[in-house]
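A reminder from the course coordinator: this example appears on the midterm review sheet, so study it carefully.

Given structure:
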């Protein structure tokens, strides 16, 4: 098991948090408080999910939660873009990072689904 802070998905999640924090800091107060805080909370949840999935025997629940948080972020960021609270360049970077994290999470989920929960080699049935 790799240290969770060295995983590419963790680094992408940290980048996402940094980008989102900058985006939210540069928005109007009402957006920042109502929607921005929710976006940042979802980013922190994603980082937590990376750690939890890395140490858990059954990774699937943590990866499913991570994917749900990514969907929430995408929806809220899209709302910010549509209401012109967020600039297109920032929106594009957030979508790029959420797509990367989503692909990695789905790959990890698929990989974890093919492994026995209790490790080891041989038949576990």
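Designed residues:
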């Amino acid at each position: 098991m790799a240290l969770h802070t060295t995983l590419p998905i963790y680094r992408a999640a940290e980048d996402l948090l940094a980008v989102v924090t900058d985006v939210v800091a540069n928005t109007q107060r009402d957006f920042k408080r109502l929607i921005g805080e929710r976006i940042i909370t979802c980013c922190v949840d994603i980082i937590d999910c990376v750690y939890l999935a890395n140490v858990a025997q059954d990774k699937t629940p943590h990866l499913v939660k991570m994917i749900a948080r990514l969907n929430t972020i995408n929806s809220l960021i899209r709302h910010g873009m549509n209401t012109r609270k967020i600039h297109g360049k920032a929106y594009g970077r957030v979508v790029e990072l959420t797509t990367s994290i989503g692909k990695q999470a789905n790959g990890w989920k698929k990989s974890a689904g093919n492994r026995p929960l209790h490790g080891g080699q041989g038949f576990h049935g």
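The helical segments are 8-25, 29-55, 60-82, 88-113. Residues 120-125 have pLDDT under 50 and may be disordered.
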